[in-house]
Amino acid sequence: MGCLIALLILVSPRLALIVLHLGWDYLNPISPFWAVLGWLFLPWTTLWCAYVYNNGGDFSGLNLVLLIVAILFDLAASASGSSSRHRHQE
């Protein structure tokens, strides 16, 4: 089952957040407010924060580096969507 969730995360992080919220209590350490904001704006970061919180909650060392990578993934995804919209308007 873990491999299916990992594949779902790679294909659609927002759908993975919904599945994790409805099927498991994996997102419980994150407040509902931040989970919704994460779903809207930073799905990769929200998934990584949920993983870290469920495995000790220590944001140092490699976990901090991977948090920064998740933020960069989210920013890159929003930037590519934004540039795609601007090209179609011309």
Task: Record keyword descriptors for this entry.
90 residues; 5 helices
Structural class: mainly alpha
**Uncertain regions spanning at least 5 consecutive residues:** none
Q: Helical residue percent?
A: over 70%
Shape: globular
Please work out how many helical segments DSSP would assign: 5
**Amount of beta strand:** under 5%
Helix/strand order, N-terminal first: HHHHH
Mean pLDDT: 83
Overall radius of gyration: 14 Å
Number of structural domains: 1
Largest beta-sheet characterization: none
Overall number of strands: 0
Distance between the termini: 45 Å
Question: What does this 3D model show about the protein?
Answer:
There is one protein chain. With 90 residues, this protein is an all-alpha fold. The protein has helices at 2-11, 13-23, 32-41, 43-54, 62-89. Helix 4 (43-54) packs antiparallel against helix 5 (62-89).
Summarize the structure.
The protein has 90 residues and is mostly helical.
Helix/strand layout:
Layout: H1 2-11, H2 13-23, H3 32-41, H4 43-54, H5 62-89
